[in-house]
Automatic annotation (TrEMBL):
<feature type="active site" description="Proton donor">
    <location>
        <position position="202"/>
    </location>
</feature>
<feature type="binding site">
    <location>
        <position position="75"/>
    </location>
    <ligand>
        <name>a divalent metal cation</name>
    </ligand>
</feature>
<dbReference type="GO" id="GO:0006098">
    <property type="term" value="P:pentose-phosphate shunt"/>
</dbReference>
<dbReference type="GO" id="GO:0005975">
    <property type="term" value="P:carbohydrate metabolic process"/>
</dbReference>
<keyword id="KW-0119">Carbohydrate metabolism</keyword>
<dbReference type="InterPro" id="IPR000056">
    <property type="entry name" value="Ribul_P_3_epim-like"/>
</dbReference>
<feature type="binding site">
    <location>
        <position position="9"/>
    </location>
    <ligand>
        <name>substrate</name>
    </ligand>
</feature>
<feature type="active site" description="Proton acceptor">
    <location>
        <position position="36"/>
    </location>
</feature>
<comment type="similarity">
    <text>Belongs to the ribulose-phosphate 3-epimerase family.</text>
</comment>
<dbReference type="GO" id="GO:0046872">
    <property type="term" value="F:metal ion binding"/>
</dbReference>
<feature type="binding site">
    <location>
        <position position="202"/>
    </location>
    <ligand>
        <name>a divalent metal cation</name>
    </ligand>
</feature>
<keyword id="KW-0170">Cobalt</keyword>
<keyword id="KW-0479">Metal-binding</keyword>
<dbReference type="InterPro" id="IPR011060">
    <property type="entry name" value="RibuloseP-bd_barrel"/>
</dbReference>
<feature type="binding site">
    <location>
        <position position="34"/>
    </location>
    <ligand>
        <name>a divalent metal cation</name>
    </ligand>
</feature>
<keyword id="KW-0413">Isomerase</keyword>
<dbReference type="InterPro" id="IPR026019">
    <property type="entry name" value="Ribul_P_3_epim"/>
</dbReference>
Length: 246
């Protein structure tokens, strides 16, 4: 499996001092920052948009290599993932991770401009994200079957292959929910088929649940409340990494 990547979710940080929270978290040994973008439509919660990402990006050095320290891992819990690709690229997003369900469920558009924002297939969207110079991730909600990702990951067209799969281990929308161990067969199936794939898990990860996720084959670990709620965030990050590295 690829190296362990620990990606604290800043959803659980103090939004009043978000820039400092970001630089502190990298200082505590985090690899990436997981940035949860919610639109109040795809999920029943609203967070923040590209202007906020621009500001917090300036508090953290850009990664010098692909997936290096300081990668902004933007988890796009939004209904129109194509519409925001360019804005987030400009804001400093490195990895644009959209939801498969949003890409296939784009609703009917009223104008040609709206049409081009809404009509997209996951493959076209991945290509578009790559054209903007970002890495592309595809996320699946708990009720979505993992096999929908195979067609994308098996593509011979390199530009249309995602760089990461995100298996949600809670229903997206809120931090601090309970980890769903019944999502682990999805992770196992992905790891078996794709030994080198970056497989991210998100939701309810902590020192209590990390072994289950690591044993299944996850290597990219998101943790919000477990890191930001800790007395010693650096220690939690270290323990999560040790569990993945075995
Ligand atoms: C939930 C978000 C998660 C969330 C995880 O919709 O995608 O990234 O912040 O929070 P914890 O780790 O507290 O479950
Ligand atoms: Zn997330």
């Amino acid at each position: 499996a690829p190296p362990a990547i620990i990606a604290p979710s800043i959803l659980s940080a103090d939004f009043g001092t978000l820039g400092k929270a970001c630089s502190d978290t990298i200082g505590h040994g985090a690899d990436w920052l997981h940035v949860d973008i919610m639109d109040g439509h795809f999920v029943p919660n609203i967070t923040f948009g590209a202007p906020v990402v621009t500001k917090i990006r300036s508090h953290v050095d850009r990664p010098k290599e692909t997936f290096g320290t300081g990668t902004f891992d933007c988890h796009m819990m939004i209904s129109e993932p194509k519409k925001w690709v360019k804005d987030f690229q400009k804001a400093g997003c490195d990895l644009y991770c959209f939801h498969y369900e949003a890409a296939v469920n784009s609703t009917a558009a009223e104008s040609p401009e709206e049409q081009s924002d809404k009509m997209t297939s996951p493959k076209e969207l991945i290509r578009f994200i790559h054209e903007q110079g970002m890495r592309a991730g595809v996320a699946i909600k708990p009720k979505t079957d993992v096999s929908v990702l195979y067609e994308l990951l098996d593509s011979d067209v390199k530009e249309e292959v995602p760089d990461m799969a995100l298996v949600m281990t809670v229903e997206p929308g809120f931090g601090g929910q309970k980890f769903m161990p019944d999502m682990m067969p999805k992770v196992q199936a992905l790891r078996k088929r794709y030994p080198d794939l970056n497989i991210e898990v998100d939701g309810g990860l902590s020192e209590k649940t990390i072994d289950t996720a690591a044993d299944a084959g996850a290597n990219v670990i998101v943790a919000g409340s477990a890191v930001f709620g800790a007395q010693d965030p650096g220690d939690v990050i270290k323990k999560l990494r040790q569990a993945v590295e075995g």
